[in-house]
Amino acid sequence: MNYQQEKIKPYSPDGAKGKQVEQMFDNIAHSYDFLNHALSLGIDKYWRKAALNSLKPYAPQRLLDIATGTGDFALLAAKLLHPRSIVGADLSEGMLSVARQKALRSEYARNITFQKEDCMALSFADSSFDAITVAYGIRNFENLDRGLSEMLRVLKPGGRLVIIELTTPQKSPMKQLFGFYSRVWMPTMGRLISHDKQAYTYLPATMEAFPQGERMVEILAKAGFTDINFKRFTGGISTLYTAARP
């Protein structure tokens, strides 16, 4: 099935979305961390912790962090969950370069590896991981169904999937405030700091287009996941989805 956010591309309506997303994150890697936390006013740190805390009862020992970006979520997972190993996977070598430098400066360098991966065709064997996480990256998938299918494949039976993603609030006044934030404030600040106008126009557009709440639950169920739940944070700005491989 085609989803609306799959049609939104950073630079041109022509060409593969995955290649354009890779180019975009290479372009903004230098300023990504600063903008990511500044634009969320630091609230994203609370959302990230809540997402990882949902995995604590399952004590995953081998974890895959998809769309790992600059590695913040993988490093936080190492701190909170203490797995034996974490693989951070991403399309963008620019982002992965930043992630590797962070890992080297941390106490978790021996437990984390970062590698370039296309989540449409992961290189890992079936049933390789106890848990898979995706923090604020799933809306960039070129094909959502294919990406979910790949994650289901490499997840062990009984393994857990955790997705946290930015979403659009449905109730006033948060809906109006978020509209101004995503359509005016984010593109303006993103353009000034990252010098990539298209990136911070593309990113809020995908937030609005991405399937949310009950619709995302349906998509996860169709992909083969079970025990699916979701929880909204901060008036619906961010949503946590949890699921399992049967």
Task: Provide an overview of this structure.
The structure is a single chain. The protein has 246 residues and is α/β, with parallel strands linked by helices. It has one domain: 3-Layer(aba) Sandwich (Rossmann fold), CATH 3.40.50. It contains nine helices and seven strands. It has helices at 17-28, 32-39, 44-53, 72-81, 93-105, 144-154, 174-194, 199-209, 214-223; strands at residues 62-66, 85-90, 112-116, 129-135, 155-166, 226-233, 238-244. Helix 4 links the parallel strand 1 and strand 2. It is globular.
Give a short summary of the structure.
This protein is of the alpha/beta class.
Output the keywords:
globular, Rossmann fold, single chain, 9 helices, 246 residues, alpha/beta
Can you write the helix and strand succession as a string? HHHEHEHEEHEHHHEE
Low-confidence stretches: none
Please name the CATH architecture.
3-Layer(aba) Sandwich
The helical percent reads: 40-55%
| Total number of domains | 1
Reported by name, the CATH topology is Rossmann fold
CATH class: Alpha Beta
Q: What is the distance, rounded to the nearest whole angstrom, between the alpha carbons of the first and last residues? A: 23 Å
Total number of helices: 9
Strand content: 15-25%
Which outline best applies? globular
- Broad structural category: alpha/beta
User: Which sheet architecture does the biggest sheet show?
Assistant: 7 strands, mixed
Number of strands: 7
Radius of gyration (CA) equals: 17 Å
